[in-house]
Structures are given as C-alpha cells and as structure tokens.
Amino acid sequence: MSNVKLIVMYPRPKDITAFERVYQNEHVPMAVEKLAGKTQIVATEVLSSPQGAAPFHRIVEVHFPSKQALEACAASEGGKQTLAHAVSISSGGTPIFLVAEEQTFIFDRSAQSA
User: Fold this and answer.
1) d(CA 41, CA 89)
2) For residue 99, which of 68, 76, 77 has the smallest C-alpha distance?
3) Nearest CA to 1 among 71, 66, 73?
C-alpha cells in the first residue's frame, strides 16, 4: 500500500484564535520534529460550508510512504506524544483520526479550456 496518510479532523474550536495560536506555535513544530517517517503534512483550514456551519475547523493530512511507516510512527514515543497533544488542544471536541490510502486523478487542463 502506498500514498497512505493519517487524517486528523479537528472540530470547530470554542475559541478559534486561541486554538490557532497553540496549533501554529506548539503543535505544528511538534509534528514536524516528532512524526518520524512522514513525507508531507498538508494542513487545511476549513473556511465555510454550503450546508451551513462547517463541523470541522482544520483537516490535516500527514503523508507516509507506507501503512507500515505510519503505524511505526504512531507507535513511537514521538508519535504518541503528538497524537495526545492533538487531542489536548482540540477545545471543540475530540478530533477524528482516520488512516486512508490516497488515489489521485489528474486532468488535462488544455482539454478543459477547449
């Protein structure tokens, strides 16, 4: 299995400014330092939803070269500390953790403009 990622979905926090301060200043540096084996982190801030208030504030994808690499990271001391920190900073409720395999579709842009 390749292109595996850990997805962390943070519920809308009680205080977005306070969450973002801790997320940017503490959590991101911790994840960069302690999540061994990662190849990329994509942190998306959810701005809105056409269905009303968005239930999530951030959706983070931590990419790994394999499911085994992800599992080894999660089982490591640094992985455990980082996952526990993610839970501790989430004031809107417990974040949702998912393990997913990514499939990418690439479209020819020149065909769309014709």
Assistant:
1) 18
2) 68
3) 66
Please tell me the predicted confidence (pLDDT) of residue 74: 96
Distance from first CA to last CA of the chain, Å, rounded? 37
What is the C-alpha radius of gyration for the chain, rounded to an integer number of angstroms? 16
Please name the helix (run of DSSP H) or strand (run of DSSP E) that holds residue 32, with its range, or none.
helix 28-34
Contact 27, 81 (CB under 8 A): no
Report the distance separating Cα 50 and Cα 82, nearest Å: 32
Other C-beta atoms lying within 10 Å of the C-beta of residue 66: 13
For residue 96, give the H/E element and its range. Answer: strand 96-101
The model's pLDDT over 25-52, given as tens digits with 9 standing for 90+, comes to 999 999 999 999 999 999 999 999 999 9
d(CA 69, CA 40): 13
Give tens-digit pLDDT for 50-79: 999 899 999 999 999 999 999 999 999 999
> What is the residue type of 95?
P
Q: What is the pLDDT of residue 7?
A: 98
